[in-house]
Amino acid sequence: MTAIASFCFFTALVAIISWWLTRKDRMDSSDAYFLAGRSLTAWVIAGSLMLTNLSTEHLIGLNGDAFNHTIAVMAWETTAALAMVLTALYFLPRYLRIGLTTIPEYLALRFDNHTRILATALFLFSYAIAILPVVLLFGAAGLESLFDVSVSLGLSEAESKWIMVWVVGTIGSMYAIFGGLKAVAISDTINGIGFLIAGLLIPVLALYMLGDGNILTGFNEVYSAENEKFDITGDEPGSFLPFGVLFTGMIVNQIFFWCTNQSIIQRALGAKNLKEAQKGVLIAAGFKIIGPLAVVLPGVIAYHMFKDTLTSDQYLQAYPMLVKAVLPTVLTGFFAAVMVGAVLSTFNSVLNSAATLFSKGVYHTVINPASSERDQVQIGRWCSALLAIAAMCIAPSIDTSGSLYIYLQQINATFFGPMLAVILCGLLTTRASARAAKTSLIVGPLVFYLLNFSFGTEYQGLMRDLFGLSEPLHFLHTLALVFLLTLGLMFVMSPRSSGSVQTISAGSSASLVDLTPWRYSKVVGIIIAVTTIACYVSLAQ
User: Fold this and answer.
1) What's the CATH architecture for 2-403+522-539?
2) Which band of pLDDT confidence, cut at 50, 70 and 90, is reported for residue 185?
């Protein structure tokens, strides 16, 4: 009963605070609804960035992968910090100078509206089939494991997951549909505080228990007994995440996700000025470095404690089982509320970005160019509602037999490489043409899908023969290959002179925010980069 009360209290508290801080805001303009009126400050941006990215697919999924493999999976977190430095120092000044609302809007300015529509469709498709359903499924799995919901309600696990998916999805969509970006960002920040406290509390309590009251003793026990788990390079035969991918597809993945992905960048585009945007992104980058303490280390601890109890197929149970073993009952409700908050934050953030993309990139551009600001907001709300329903329908049917986190990354990678190639060509050269951009956005994802899914067996056989490989080529290497092929296609299809392509000049909207950079941005960026590299040097075996 205490657990349920604390769960309801914290969940309601987040909702009440978010409502109170946004109750006087008018949501009748697209800037107010989609970009929080360009009023977000550094800590709100940082909190929203973290909770848009971090959710139960990290707490349960990454910890589960660490349970099955090694801490090499922390690369998904630590290398993100490097990409975020790049966002703060290079991409944000350009985006804010142009006065963007969406990334596809940049493609319209640089290429043409057809390129914008294609990019918008790819974003929306990846949100609908990958991010939104997986986030809901992980949230339902976590609640089932913690609270034994199926037992309490007298239902099967499948039935209870279906109910939780719809309950959590409905609550999450309310923030996005009625509150806009500001309500989403505020709830993200509050949930982020809870996430940080709860996430770090689990390994601390576990090590305290293992060390009979001494955390360092507990860590030494785990490190000594499971030393092979602490190899950050992951460079063993058939590695789940080989060290080599850090220099190929991981670079592509992280630069796209943190520098050009709408659901991430939209938080920074809503900043009150460049200084706050840069501070927010770099603060979040700092948290990314310590993130593995919450989303990877507990998986190794769980392996040490439950390796004789759980099989590799039960990896999704590793983290919830650890939580049950070490968390006092009085805190169980709070922890469950944090998990639900993390799901809500990612879910409603992606819904808000999807609404922005559709309203600005499809409705206002193609369907009704004369639409008013109020019309665009209303259409955005309808888009959020329909995507939420689609995600709630898809989530219970997803196969959980393999790594759900890798499933999510593979689906996203289908679009990441080609999209990044097109955006970078637009930013870095005046030669890239609209025809080349549109062709690349169609051909690139198709090639990746064929190589990684449709003809994966044949492709892997060819790679083995060509390079003498003993193990399958990791999908991140394939991502890098498709990225390079897309760059080549852009180069071949573009004219040799820049006379026939568009260039971008900042519009009148660029004056809406102050573009004075944060004076410490470069210094902080260097510190973050050095710290990230030091993590790899110190943990390499």
Assistant:
1) Up-down Bundle (1.20)
2) confident
